[in-house]
Amino acid sequence: MSSSQDNVDFIVDQISSAGEVSSRKMLGEYGIYCAGKMIALVCDDQLFIKPTGSGRAYIGKVTEGLPYPGAKPWLLIPSKKWADGKWLSELVRITAEELPLPVKKKKPAAKKARKPSSG
């Protein structure tokens, strides 16, 4: 089951005060980014925040869930909390602050054309 674009748009709007926020569709589900860092997933219309120590402390009583089969546990944010934009933005901000910047992958070097050998 894929997630609703309307739900993703609502979440992104709610967390817009956390900084530069965007979403990207990924195989029917969505990744949510803040300051270039993936901080959340929306899978089956559920919001999962990447676990950090600061995020856990901010939430208090944490509920974990698996965004997809084989995933490690993420922090599951109940839909009733989505409407509290101030709270959700702060959670996103402190989560993004603790996460490292993504490592840029190097592009493979172009292969040089070989000169034919004269023989």
Characterization of this structure:
With 119 residues, the protein is an alpha+beta fold. The protein has a single domain, classed as YgaC/TfoX-N like chaperone (Yope Regulator, Chain: A, 2-Layer Sandwich). It contains three helices and six strands; from the N terminus they run H-E-E-E-E-H-E-E-H. The chain has helices spanning 5-14, 53-59, 85-98; strands at residues 21-26, 29-34, 37-43, 46-49, 64-65, 74-77. A six-stranded antiparallel beta sheet has the order 1-2-3-4-6-5. Strand 1 and strand 2 (29-34) form a beta hairpin. Helix 2 (53-59) packs antiparallel against helix 3. It starts with a helix and ends in a 21-residue tail after the last helix. The mean pLDDT is 91.
In short:
The protein is an alpha+beta fold and 119 residues long. The protein has three helices and six strands, in the order αββββαββα.
